[in-house]
Design goal:
About 55% of the residues lie in helices and about 0% in strands. It contains 7 helices and no strands.
Length: about 130
């Protein structure tokens, strides 16, 4: 049948192929033209380009779990601003993140978001003994 599309077998894109797709797309080539040249589906080319524009990387994802909402640059910006409030950090980063995300980034950088106790809290018995001493 002449009008039937040929199904391409499943195979992962190599780093080189991903780089080629991004280079051709950045040069203004159409998705259809790139797919025909690389012998891939248009969906593969589109997904590779969308990942590049969204995340700034073309590397395959290796970690499992939810995707991160912040880029590495934004993570570094969060860590550098340890002296300001979380709402200020959220406004500066420019990404919709919750306060727990900021605390987690600070914890990953071995920074504590809470100040330590300056003195141990006194028990009622300690208060009585101090009052008697006075």
């Amino acid at each position: 049948m002449p009008g039937k599309r040929v199904r391409r077998h499943f195979s992962q894109l190599s780093e080189f192929d991903r780089g080629l797709i991004i280079g051709m797309k950045a040069a203004g080539w159409s998705t259809c033209r790139i797919a025909g040249l690389m012998d891939r589906s248009e969906c593969v080319v589109r997904n590779c380009w969308e990942q590049w524009t969204r995340e700034g990387t073309h590397a395959r994802k290796t970690e499992s779990g939810a995707t991160r909402k912040t880029l590495r640059r934004e993570d570094r910006r969060i860590v550098r601003q340890t002296t300001v409030t979380r709402s200020t950090i959220r406004a500066d980063v420019g990404v919709a993140i919750v306060p727990q995300t900021i605390s987690r980034h600070l914890a990953e950088a071995n920074l504590k978001s809470k100040s330590p106790f300056r003195a141990f809290p006194l028990t009622p018995e300690h208060w009585q003994l101090r009052l008697q001493w006075c």
